[in-house]
Amino acid sequence: GDFSGQLLAYLSLGPIFIIVGFVTLIIFKRELHTISFLGGLVFNEGVNWLIKNVIREPRPCEEAHSAVTTKYGMPSSHSQFMWFFSVYSFLFLYLRMHQTNNARFLDLLWRHVLSICLVTVALLVSYSRVYLLYHTWSQVLYGGVAGSIMAIAWFAFTQEILTPLFPRIAAWPISEFFLIRDTSLIPNILWFEYTVTRAEARNRQRKLGTKLQ
Fold first, then answer.
1. How confident is the model at residue 105 (pLDDT cuts 50, 70, 90)?
2. Which of 93, 132, 115, 116 is nearest to 11 (CA)?
3. What pLDDT, on the 0 to 100 scale, is given for residue 150?
4. CB 135, CB 129: distance < 8 Å
5. Nearest Cα to Cα of residue 12 among 123, 114, 89, 142
């Protein structure tokens, strides 16, 4: 009957939905930066597992959650995952999709709104781990700090090391076979895809109209 607990329990499933979303996005978009983002999330999870098994701090109520796969709770993997995702997305929005002098008000507004939503969800998921007695406040706090640091480091690594290599990787025969592409030089991929698709649709419509005459 605890509605708040049920809602927070559903929110704590956020990492699963994010992973499924990334796999779906990669299958349909096949973009190198998206693949790198997912690689960072997986690496972040590996670092979390390593830290947990080094510190070996137990969860606050081990007997309350017998189905948990690991008995260690420092740092919180949910908190670390969500803060990695949120901080990396924030950096992507404001640095990768860099603003221009003629950026429209709505373009900037949706970035601000999305950033606020990302931070809000990360805070709620982190809070849910304490509310549901999976973690202590310190375990959640250190998870958030670790995830944020990992996000900044992975974003810098992607931008400075991987991005210059993306054109070469996209030209590999195996990349061409799987239609893997590099959009690093396109500031706003959403606007680019929209304009290209619209132009192609109009062009095909004109050709179809010509044939019917």
1. low
2. 132
3. 95
4. yes
5. 123
Of the candidate ranges 17-26, 41-50, 185-194, the one whose mean pLDDT is the lowest: 185-194
User: What is the distance between the alpha carbons of residues 84 and 88, in angstroms, rounded to a whole number?
Assistant: 6
Q: Are 82 and 150 in contact (CB under 8 A)?
A: no
Average pLDDT, the chain: 83
Tell me the DSSP string of the chain: --HHHHHHHHHTTHHHHHHHHHHHHHHHH-BHHHHHHHHHHHHHHHHHHHHHHHH-PBPTTGGG-TT-S-SB-SS-HHHHHHHHHHHHHHHIIIIIT---TT--HHHHHHHHHHHHHHHHHHHHHHHHHHHTTSS-HHHHHHHHHHHHHHHHHHHHHIIIIIGGGHHHHHTSHHHHHTT-B--TT-S-HHHHHHHHHHHHHHHHHHHHHHHH-
d(CA 201, CA 159): 33
Give the side-chain half-sphere CA count within 13 A for 123.
6
